[in-house]
Design a protein that fits this description.
The complex is a heterodimer. Chain A is of the alpha/beta class. Chain A folds into two domains: about 240 residues, Rossmann fold, CATH 3.40.50.300; about 90 residues, ACT domain (Alpha-Beta Plaits, 2-Layer Sandwich), CATH 3.30.70.260. Helix content of chain A is about 35%, strand content about 30%. In chain A, the strands form three sheets. Chain A has a six-stranded mixed β-sheet with strand order 6-7-8-3-9-10, with helices on both faces. In chain A, strands 2-1-4-5 form a four-stranded antiparallel β-sheet. In chain A, helix 3 packs across helix 4, helix 3 packs parallel to helix 5 and helix 4 packs across helix 5. Chain A is elongated, with a radius of gyration of 24 Å. The two termini of chain A are about 45 Å apart. By secondary structure, chain B is mostly helical. Chain B has one domain: MetI-like (MetI-like fold, Orthogonal Bundle), CATH 1.10.3720.10. Chain B contains nine helices and no strands. In chain B, helix 1 runs parallel beside helix 5, helix 5 packs across helix 7 and helix 7 runs antiparallel to helix 9. Classes of the chains: A alpha/beta, B mainly alpha. Chains A and B meet through helix 2, strand 6 and helix 3 of A and helix 6, helix 7 and helix 9 of B. The complex binds adenosine-5'-triphosphate and magnesium ion. The site of magnesium ion (MG) has 3 residues of chain A, from helix 1.
Chain lengths: ~350, ~220
């Protein structure tokens, strides 16, 4: 649906040059909710603005729905933009127009009939839960409501893609949750592909199925959310993942284990909806293995859970090997870790 | 103190002349000035139709005209005025320098008002696939409307001040009465009453402008 091929973006300033993107390769499939995360200045906004050509790449190709944007005429480009909705951190609503007029704007630009506009806008305001605010002005709305208007406006022209540039960064956690729920509904009900950028891992955790991590103009890691959350490779990714999933042992627990003279632990990682995976229950019951659960963490990701367990195994060595093999067979990732403070 | 040589009729004529001069030059100045102001905003680097060369030419010309004091401007363009309206003296003739005076001023005010519209709004417009003309019509102008009204209020008040100076070329109007009767003939009544009328004019225009702008902005 969206493809970025070896994208470079250089901003020319008076004297210096800023190399904002350095060889980005990205493929976003239809129906994805693709998240891009990175610290401030990583180049996220630049990246998202390339997709609707608000920003042109210095080098490389942007391909949207099979079309090379570089080859399009100005007119064709405007048409393509109508198939890509966009919402913003600061909403960017017209303060001088009512909510109805704001949502109607893309349709007015496309010269649709009054009747069609009225019908479509009413439907959209109903979808975002702001039917009763049609004749209000943006300054009479809360941040969350403004973003709902932004979403309704972005959906007006029936886009195939929705771009979200820090759409929830100006909102409190509760409002963020409701906007994320709404975006999820947009994705499910209308089958719209969503590309969202954020600096909050919790946003990725709540609605994305795929994620790319950016640092200094490069994508340092990407994959399915479960994969990346379970096995962050890069230091920055680990830092982001740590903000929502406790994949590492807390310092206090490490200290306690060291005091007890325990150095080696088994780190298990399981995906599933049950707190205690059946295989583990079975092993404890049938094989009479002795384990101590030193630490566990469970995080809801998409519709399932990612569970991290740190176990201490007290049995014989031969049994231990068998248990590990057995667990691996059941799709549990298992790893020997040293506690080392 | 209240002996005076001017009649009520002269006052009424003066008011009428002032309104005529302000009205005409404001009308023409607003049309041309708004177009120039829009051109300044859209053609500058980073604008929606960047033509830096056009901007680079227009910008200093506007600065140049704005730096000429009005009284000098009147005299300097007299030959041009004569060609245009047949005479360099009188109310109609005074409108020519008034327009040339106010147009670049309005262009600047319009430019500033339009620049106040956040870049986010423009970005939203572009993301919707709006054409440059649609951006001006549906985004820039409506969002800047309140501020534009205030700009025009300022321009109108400047014009009232300038019409008084237009008395130098027999422009007529309230200011002319103040100079000819009040200043040159020591007619205190004429002086005080014209000043009062001018103050009322300015007050009414300013508060109307403010009210209008507030009305537009709050909505
Ligand atoms: N229009 C511009 N002109 C010059 N430099 C720019 C421009 N836009 C962005 N940059 C630079 O490009 C780099 C990436 O900026 P970008 O806005 O994409 O980062 P970001 O990841 O979105 O950051 P944030 O989280 O703060 O929004 C930064 O170094 C920034 O200074
Ligand atoms: Mg950004």
């Amino acid at each position: 649906m969206i493809e970025l091929q070896d994208i470079h973006k250089v901003y020319e300033k008076k004297k210096s040059e800023v190399h904002a993107l350095k060889g980005i390769n990205l493929k976003i499939d239809k129906g994805d909710i693709f998240g891009v995360i990175g610290y401030s200045g990583a180049g996220k906004s630049t990246l998202v603005r390339l997709v609707n050509y608000l920003e042109r790449p210095t080098k490389g190709d942007v391909i949207v729905d099979g079309k090379y944007l570089a080859k399009q005429s100005a007119k064709a480009l405007r048409q393509i933009k109508k198939e890509i909705g966009m919402i913003f951190q600061h909403f960017n609503l017209l303060e001088s127009k009512t909510i109805f007029q704001n949502v109607a704007m893309p349709l007015i630009l496309s010269k649709r009939s009054k009747q069609e506009i009225k019908q479509r806008v009413t439907e959209l305001l109903d979808f975002v839960g702001l039917k009763d605010k049609a004749s209000h002005y943006p300054n009479e709305l809360s941040g969350g409501q403004k973003q709902r208007v932004g979403i309704a406006r972005a959906l007006a022209s029936n886009p195939k893609i929705l771009l979200c540039d820090e759409a929830t960064s100006a909102l409190d956690p509760q409002t963020t949750q409701s906007i994320l729920d709404l975006l999820k509904r947009v994705n499910e009900k209308y089958g719209i592909t969503i590309l969202l950028i954020t600096h909050e891992m919790s946003v990725i955790q709540k609605i994305c199925n795929k994620v790319a991590v950016m640092e200094q103009g490069e994508i340092i890691e990407q994959g399915s959310v479960l994969e990346v959350f379970g096995h962050p490779k890069h230091k920055t990714t680990k830092n982001f993942v740590q903000t929502v999933v406790k994949t590492e042992l807390p310092e206090k627990i490490k200290q306690r284990l060291t005091d007890k003279g325990i150095d080696r632990l088994l780190k298990l990682e399981m995906v599933g909806t049950e707190a205690m995976p059946p295989i583990l229950v079975q092993l404890i019951r049938d094989d009479q293995i002795q384990i101590t659960i030193e630490f566990m963490d469970m995080t809801e990701i998409q519709d399932t859970n990612l569970a991290i367990w740190y176990l201490h195994f007290d049995g014989e060595e031969s049994k231990r090997e068998k248990v590990i093999a057995n667990l691996e067979q059941h799709g549990v990732r298992i790893e020997e870790v040293s506690v080392g403070v | 103190m209240f002996e005076t040589n001017i009649t009520l009729q002269q006052f009424l004529d003066g008011i009428q002349d002032t309104l005529y001069m302000v009205g005409m030059s404001l009308l023409v100045g607003t049309i041309i000035g708004a177009i120039l102001g829009i051109i300044l905003v859209v053609t500058q680097r980073g604008g929606i139709i960047p033509v830096p060369i056009l901007y680079a030419v227009l910008n200093p010309i506007i600065n140049l005209i704005r730096s000429v004091p009005f009284i000098i401007l009147i005299v300097a363009i007299m030959p041009f005025t004569r060609q245009l309206v047949g005479t360099a003296i009188g109310t109609t003739a005074a409108i020519v320098p008034l327009i040339i005076y106010i147009t670049p001023f309005i262009a600047r005010l319009v430019e500033n008002s339009l620049l106040e519209v956040g870049s986010g709004i423009i970005e939203a417009a572009e993301s919707m696939g709006a054409t440059p003309l649609q951006i001006i019509r549906y985004f820039l102008l409506p969002e800047a409307f309140g501020s534009l009204i205030l700009s025009l209020t300022t321009a109108t008040i400047s014009l009232i001040g300038a019409t008084a100076m237009a008395g130098a070329v027999g422009g007529g109007g309230i200011g002319d009465i103040a100079i000819i009767y009040g200043y040159q003939r020591y007619d205190n009544f004429a002086m005080i009453s014209t000043v009062i009328i001018l103050v009322i004019f300015v007050q009414v225009i300013q508060s109307t402008g403010n009210k209008l702008a507030r009305l537009i902005r709050r909505s």
